[in-house]
Input
Amino acid sequence: MEKINLKHLADELHLSTSTVSRALQDSHQISTETKRRVMELAHKLDYVPNPHASSLGSRKSKTIAVVIPEVFDSYFAQAINGIETVAQAHGYHVLIYLTHESAQQEQAILHAFQGGRVDGVLMSVSAETSSTEHIEALQAQGVPVAFFDRAADGIETACVTTNDLESSYLATRHLLDCGCTNLALLSISRQLSIGRQRIAGFQKALAEHGVAFEESAIIDCTNDPEENYRIIRKALEARPRPDGLLVTVELLTVSAYQACYDLHLGIPAEVKVVSFSNSRSATILNPALTTISQPAFETGKTAATLLLKGLKNNNKALVAGQVVLPSLLNIRASTVGVPAERLPV
Amino acid sequence: MEKINLKHLADELHLSTSTVSRALQDSHQISTETKRRVMELAHKLDYVPNPHASSLGSRKSKTIAVVIPEVFDSYFAQAINGIETVAQAHGYHVLIYLTHESAQQEQAILHAFQGGRVDGVLMSVSAETSSTEHIEALQAQGVPVAFFDRAADGIETACVTTNDLESSYLATRHLLDCGCTNLALLSISRQLSIGRQRIAGFQKALAEHGVAFEESAIIDCTNDPEENYRIIRKALEARPRPDGLLVTVELLTVSAYQACYDLHLGIPAEVKVVSFSNSRSATILNPALTTISQPAFETGKTAATLLLKGLKNNNKALVAGQVVLPSLLNIRASTVGVPAERLPV
Output
């Protein structure tokens, strides 16, 4: 089967390729009758426009990029589903790009977008991202960028997050109410706004409880599971030993549980654990995991809606402002010790 | 910052845009000195080619598409990482497309590729896919397609899978060796080759053990967690009750465990469970999960290598043939009942 191109259509209809092209783009310069003939033949021969060629005319790729750190995380998997729901309803393609938490990768990806590959970008910045020049350069070229979950500081645009400070505060208060006296917070993104908010919520709860905050309570982890296991194990071997962990990134949960197992520390008897996690496995872990679960699907939907609204109105500068959706604390056996099967899920 | 385009470069250098364009493409029609001047200015002004424009010339997007059912599954997340490792080393972009197990979505995605958006496609077909016309149509237009994990029947191309029959046979034999007498297999893709292979391995082990195979032992599940919970719970309420489950898709594990919990069926005392799963959480489940883990990263790497080799040699018809990489059986508490922390992980 040979690929049908503009020239085939033009030859068959005894028209110029430029007339066929303009007819397919519904140009006012072409008569209704000609448009009808072109459309009919294009349909009959199953003509598919070359997206590169038609983009040159319209300067629209009908494509949005989603730039995220990882797909291992249930949060991002659910957010992608929310984004796709909205994009598909508006005829947009969604392309997914992974930074693997590398600022350099993120810069390379955004630089490639300057060529006009995508109409707009939804992003959740990498844990390493500290400068924002690559994002501003893209905005300056008229490609709108909106953030979800992890925003970059100092960029004026639409941003959909959850109430990170408040939910971290609630989780910390829950650990203190369960009797913990020496808490640690596991983080991979202390320099990001999201990381700082979660630390601020942690500090607020400690202060309210009359517990002094020590810098050493913040444990910096990485993107490598093996290294995280060593870091967390070392933290649990320190004296006084932490008796409560606030895990601010889902992927750290396996390393934290494994370190407790290997050190024969009972969860929750000796160490209580709360994780920011959207994993469906939370209810079947040993023990079932108390989680802060974020409205991932809704966040993706809302961010995509804001971006597409901006694109539709040709309003390349998206309305700056933050939409904050609430997270939920789900109390399970990793903090309260009731057998998993007795708890609501 | 205004976007630098070909015209800016041409005006500055007093050359025509077509000369600048050909110089940037290293055309033999342009003198070395002119090429040098153009390259220097392009570099100085940080010129980024419009990918749509340059694609029209070279007919190469330097992009490969990965078409997969889901990103919730650890297997696909790891396979993507393997694919990206190879693609990045060769300067290719990787675009990820999700079918959500829908044959219709898969057809729409592949149809859009006919416009020349990507140079080649790596795919793992949806659970619903039964006809292959959409794949053949793409191949007929010179876009090579290679399969990984889940292949479509009857398409001659490169294909990287695991030893599904053998590993399913091993898992089933393990369940029988543990004393199970009434096994059930949970599937979502009975019509795919991968699903049939796993069922064949199951049947082979039963036959060797002198156990008759009943059609009712195959439990058809879906892509919806709530529905799967109901299906699996119903299967576990049947008499005689299954005392061993071979879970052939990772996402069914949570529903299977939850159904056992809610029916107060002890794992492994009353029901033993083995899952095809690459989840890092397997070791921290309650109880730790016996798994068949697939070489996901290697599979992605190998499939991408075969595709890029074909593209490089302009050999659009990839060498047909199957690469089979071995999976591993990891025995944990969900079949043998030893506490999770005592077992090698």
Confidence is low (pLDDT under 50) at residues 52-58, 340-345 of chain B. Chain B touches chain A through 55 residues (CB under 8 Å). The longest helix of chain B spans residues 296-312. Chain B has 13 helices and twelve strands.
